Amino acid sequence: MAYASQLLVIVNLIFTAIIGLYFYNALKNQQSSKIYIEKESKKELEKLYKMRTTSLTEPLSEKTRPSTFRRYCRTR
Fold first, then answer.
1. Dihedral sign, CA of 32, 33, 34, 36?
2. Considering the entire predicted model, what is its pTM?
3. What is the Cα–Cα distance from 49 to 62, expressed in whole angstroms?
4. What pLDDT is recorded for position 54?
5. In whole angstroms, how far apart are CA 69 and each of 14, 58, 72, 73?
6. Which residues make Cβ contacts (< 8 Å) with residue 66, sequence separation at least 6?
7. Closest CA relative to residue 24, chosen from 52, 46, 32
């Protein structure tokens, strides 16, 4: 009887250690993914800030619009 209870205690300790390691690794992975997400978020915010500070000296429609239409029209 004493042998069976000792075996159960050992199995319980091993099981507890395995579960503890599982949760420790899950927590560590969660922290590393959180750090990665924060870095990516910071990069995106810097990119948005850079795009907001960029301004055109003349409207983009003026740059893309042809200066004369004569060149593009067919003459008969």
1. positive
2. 0.48
3. 25
4. 81
5. 83, 20, 5, 6
6. 72
7. 32
Q: Check: CB of residue 72 under 8 Å from CB of residue 66.
A: yes
pLDDT band, residue 71 (cuts 50/70/90): low
pLDDT above 90 (res 13) = yes
Cβ-based neighbours of 74, under 8 Å, separated by 6 or more:
none
Which tokens hold the place of 51? 């795009």
Q: What is the Cα 43 distance to its own chain's centre?
A: 10
The span from the first CA to the last CA of the chain, in angstroms, equals: 111
pLDDT recorded at residue 61: 75
Q: CA-CA distances (angstroms) from residue 66 to 56, 59, 63, 70, 71? A: 18, 13, 8, 10, 9
DSSP annotation of 69: S
